[in-house]
Design brief:
The complex is a heterodimer of chains A (449) and B (346). Chain A contains 16 helices and 5 strands. In chain A, strand 3 and strand 4 form a beta hairpin. The N and C termini of chain A lie far apart (100 Å). Chain B has 14 helices and 11 strands. The two termini of chain B are 32 Å apart. The chains are: A mainly alpha (449), B alpha/beta (346).
């Protein structure tokens, strides 16, 4: 006999037991997730990342515990039947009935009939009733408390981190003063009153916001703000702040206060050199500006090289970079909807310098789209400075091409920029050359300033 | 139960099933009626009565222990009357000889010629009350216990079968131990149950006084016969037992053995002899009989629990240290059993 009613009860109870297990595990898993969330938040992580880590921790804990429970204590028919018997006081009626062969003797037959007749009246809810346990309630309360209080504790904990000697002890007043004097020199060279103001602010900060004994700057919040301002003034363009709020590691590239000072020091030193006293020496002939076409899919590496720095141009068809053909695959007369120039100034060791990829427009913060008559409909400067220079995207008018692109003209090799032959900007078709010159050649005006 | 089997045109199989179920129902009614009938004649011995009925339904012998005057003899005699069993009583004394129990060859004359004929002893009955069995010498005890085990008596090389069903209900007095011969472990293990008859409560005692000192006399009425009892004994063996119940029993029996390597320290310290496989058999059979007595068709852990003490209390021996420290066999049994029940059913 298949005992359909008995097995139906067992199935219902098994489902409830599984659900109950899941609830119990989820309660604990949520607590684990809340701990992960709290730890992530209080250690200064972003709120969305902390939430994500909490959720992932909960899901992983929940799945692992559920699987472990199912493996360690599988819900076999016999086990569930015993559970029903125990909870409902059936004196092993179901657990025996599912084991016997009713044809073996009249007692076994009577047993199975009795089990079948009682089964429809058995309630799975009575066997497994869901009710709040003290532990569950406490866990949930703790979870909620962590979820609510962790973001509030973020501020104080971050302040503690800011005030910690390890975080600011390496930034001495002398280091800051050095940067301030360089900023002052750069401001004078560039005739930039904003830079001068920041330099003065840094000097005042050292005077008022540093520890007299250890000669360390204690007001890291103000220092961070000033250094970020200095960063923006010395290197215009849309990008993430040099330092994260709070003076700790930068969110984007992990910059510490000390390394930020070093970077600013290098950049300001170069800017201080542009005094305009030696104008002729700073003007580079056009022939020194080079253009590359990296092969499709290549990752441009460190383009640092001695001597003249390269200007590279990646001229590709409209679409994503993964699908664009290289210039070598173009035929004369091919129309290109979108082109991308990858370049670096030759007055720097390309890529590694803070001036890499800075053209006239970029240096003066004009990074927005701009129309070039007879050349391109719009040009947009990618604000992100990468190690191989800076990208300039051109949206080309279909009929803007003065002449078709000839592969002979653009006889580029493939590989990393340092291995590529240089190509003069003047060798490029005018529609690319004009944009490349605009963005990658320092204008006479810039040099004179 | 049988109602569910009624159909418009029942097949032969269904008719057979229906008849079998009806017969089963009749047997359950008989058992229930017998219990009620004994209970009407003997007041205040419900627990002992249940144990004795379980014992008889399982086909086992019982050792009844209790102070004099508690109604042990009355209970046994009433049982024999209700169950329709041939009753015999042997009063055990130190000078009782084995032949006084089993019977002997007697010289008689038939047609003028002397012949030896086997004269049956009092053991040739269906329900034998061996009163104060510990007062007889070991030799006489052994004769009785051999008859209990083999259900035969051998005299002068001739084997004589005892009637069926055959039950020995032996009594012993826990007091007055002087001049008694304690039953050895091997022989006491042959008793299916050891039933301890306790003093009745105040209310029960009042009922006993009312019943036994009034003008009316309650006569025990016969409810069944020996054939019924034999059939019920076969029914008992048909009662199914769930796998986990058998597992609990097996683990429990192993846990009482001090000789096994993983025995608990308490068992090693206080238990001299654990439960034998015969004890485990008794436990299962008793659980089955108890289930049927209660009108159920399966032996549960609760039935095993109820049969635990009467079936095993005389099979477990404590060490001298255990006795000296006042350890009770009942507590040891219950503790070990519950531990195993939890481990299997959790």
């Amino acid at each position: 006999m298949s005992l359909p009613a008995v097995r139906a009860v067992i199935r219902r109870v098994r489902g409830r037991v599984r659900f109950g297990r899941l609830i119990a595990i989820a309660t604990w898993a949520c607590s684990g997730g809340a701990v992960a969330f709290g730890a992530a938040v209080m250690s200064g992580g972003a709120l969305d990342l902390a939430l994500l880590s909490g959720a992932v921790a909960s899901v992983i804990l929940c799945s692992a515990a559920f699987l472990a429970w199912e493996v360690a204590r599988p819900l076999t028919e016999a086990r569930v039947a015993r559970l029903v018997d125990d909870r409902l006081g059936l004196l092993d009626l179901l657990s025996t009935a599912i084991e016997v062969d009713p044809r073996s003797n009249p007692v076994a037959l009577a047993l199975t009939l009795q089990a079948e007749s009682r089964a429809p009246d058995l309630s799975a809810a009575e066997v497994v009733d869901f009710r709040w346990t003290k532990t569950g309630a406490l866990l949930l309360a703790a979870t909620l408390m962590v979820a609510v209080t962790a973001p509030m504790l973020r501020g104080p904990f971050s302040s503690i981190a800011r005030r910690a000697p390890d975080a600011v002890g390496t930034v001495t007043a002398d280091q800051v003063l050095e940067v301030a004097s360089l900023a002052e020199a750069a401001a004078e060279a560039q005739r930039d009153p904003h830079l001068a103001a920041v330099a003065r602010a840094l000097q005042e900060l050292v005077r008022d916001g540093s520890d007299g004994e250890t000669r360390t700057v204690t007001d890291t919040a103000s220092l961070t703000e000033l250094l970020n301002t200095l960063d923006r003034l010395s290197l215009p363009g849309a990008r993430q702040p040099l330092l994260a709020a709070g003076g700790g590691e930068g969110e984007s590239d992990g910059t510490s206060l000390e390394s930020a000072l070093a970077r600013l020091e290098e950049r300001l030193t170069r800017q201080a050199m542009f005094t305009g006293l030696d104008e002729e020496a700073m003007v580079f002939p056009e022939e020194n500006w080079q253009v590359f076409s990296p092969r499709e899919g290549d990752v441009a590496g460190d383009a640092t090289q001695a001597g003249t720095g390269p200007v590279s141009a990646d001229l590709s068809k409209q679409g994503t970079s993964a699908s664009v053909p290289s210039l070598a695959e173009l035929s004369p007369g091919d129309d290109i909807g979108t082109a991308e120039l990858l370049g670096a100034s030759s007055d720097s060791s390309a890529g590694g310098s803070s001036l890499a990829g800075l053209g006239t427009q970029d240096l003066f913060g004009d990074a927005t789209a701009e129309a070039f008559a007879d050349t391109a409909e719009a040009v947009k400067v990618d604000g992100t400075e990468s190690s191989d220079g800076r990208r300039v995207t051109m949206e080309l008018a279909p009929d803007a091409s003065g002449e078709p692109i000839s592969p002979e003209q653009l006889d580029f090799a493939y590989g990393r920029p340092r291995d590529l032959p240089d190509t003069a900007v003047s060798a490029l078709p005018p529609r690319f050359g004009s944009v490349a010159a605009t963005y990658f050649l320092p204008s006479q005006e810039t040099v004179r300033r | 139960m049988s109602a569910g089997l009624n159909a418009s045109s029942p097949s032969a199989d269904e008719l057979a099933r229906s008849a079998a179920l009806e017969a089963l129902e009749q047997d359950l009614l008989l058992v229930s009626e017998a219990r009620r009938a004994v209970g009407e004649a003997v007041v205040g011995q419900d627990a002992a009565l249940e144990h004795l009925l379980v014992c008889l339904m399982s086909g086992g012998h019982a050792l009844i222990e209790g102070a004099p005057g508690l109604g042990k003899t009355l209970l046994v005699k009433t049982l024999s009357e209700v169950l329709g069993l041939e009753y015999s009583r042997i009063q055990f004394t130190p000078d009782l000889m084995p032949a006084d129990v089993t019977g002997t060859l007697a010289l008689t004359y038939e047609e003028g010629r002397p012949v030896t004929r086997f004269q049956r002893g009092p053991v040739f009955a269906q329900l034998v009350l061996a009163d104060e069995v510990n007062r007889a010498t070991p030799k006489t005890q052994a004769a009785l216990l051999e008859a209990m085990q083999e259900r035969t008596v051998t005299v002068a090389g001739q084997e004589h079968r005892l009637p069926e069903p055959f039950f020995v209900l032996a009594t012993q007095n826990p007091f007055e131990m002087d001049g008694t011969y304690t039953l050895p472990e091997a022989q006491i293990d042959r008793f299916f149950f050891k039933v301890v008859v306790d003093h009745p409560s105040e209310e029960v005692l009042v009922d006993i006084l009312d019943l036994t000192t009034g003008a009316g006399v309650v006569e025990a009425r016969r409810v069944m016969g020996p054939e019924d009892m034999l059939r019920i004994q076969r029914r008992v063996r048909e009662v199914p037992v769930a796998g986990h119940v058998k597992q609990v029993i097996a683990r429990f029996v192993r846990s009482t053995l001090p000789s096994v390597p993983d025995a608990e320290p308490m068992v090693k310290k206080y238990v001299r002899f654990g439960v034998s496989p015969r004890g485990a058999q008794a436990l299962i059979l008793a659980a089955k009989a108890r289930a049927l007595l209660a009108g159920r068709f399966n032996a549960s852990l609760q039935d095993v629990r109820a049969a635990l003490v009467p079936a095993l209390r005389h099979r477990v021996q404590l060490t001298y240290q255990g006795v000296a420290e006042g350890i009770e066999v009942v507590d040891v049994l219950n503790g070990l059993f519950e531990a195993q029940a939890r481990s299997v059913t959790a």
